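S1.2 Input.
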Amino acid sequence: MEDPLMPARPTVSKVDLKLIGASYQLLLGVGSASRSQEEQNLFAQRGCCKRQGKYVYIGHDISGSPASIDIGMCRTYCGGPQRMKSYISGVLGFSRQSSMLEFLKTKKLQDRFTESQPSNGADRSCPLDYHCEPSSVRVENVLLLAGIRQVEVIEGCHCSPSPAECLRLPSLKTFFPDSPLEQTVDVGKCSSPPHSEDGLFCVPTRFDPVLLKSPNGNDVVRTLESCELRQSCYRVSHREYYFEVLLNSAGERMERLKEIDVGRCLGGCTSGNHCLLRDPQVPDKCLVLAEGVSSHCTPHQYETHTFRSRTGQLRTVFSIQACRCEA
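S1.3 Output.
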């Protein structure tokens, strides 16, 4: 028989016991999920890779007022294991709470306290060989005084694998969002493998245009088709078509389509810094440092194509054969 002067003991219902069991299974990884899935879920629970607000100034709107937009960014760190530790301790101490509602209130207060603690940035935001990057991007057309400007806005983030090879990876962008013409296109991107000793980079080499229907006609979006390991300054194929006029064996005028790969130079150039004077006592110490001169990736070798056009005049077209960095 219970003493009426003693306070009533908190009771735990069957529903609460089921919730406790589910929480234990979630924390201890009980189930059919693989170990890698558990690790990714752990990072997702900790909220280490997620979107953060980032406002940037984009110009003046048509009223003349400064305009800014939240383009977002993916957070690449998390606040450490304290958040999960507090959650585990909260579940283990659930029996001391009078109800699940009280437990959730206590957990919410613990989460607020954890989020207010500064992060030392030492914890990974994603599993090993993964990185935090945008999962979806929308393209906004913003009307400014200077004209229409396209702004890419990050909508979400996720942990994406980082392959060691040079590959073409998917990259989704949504055009004309929140309209009947909304379309999502895989524009593609190149992976970022570790730099090789011979100074090669994973860069885009082939592109494919995609035609999108817009409120003002058709827009062309350039999508990436393939990536290759190249130098930082490199040549890519770019084809042009011309009509060439010829005379056949009977002396009759005839036309044929002439295709010329005129090429293009892509990439960038970094000349680095140069040491003009070193310490005689410590050769590795530079006393006078000259900043590198900025240079551009420009055509180096070219080929000449001469043919007769429809007007009957000789036309000369140059095609790029090689590219190099020049100041």
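S1.4 Remarks. Residues 9-46+81-118 form one domain.
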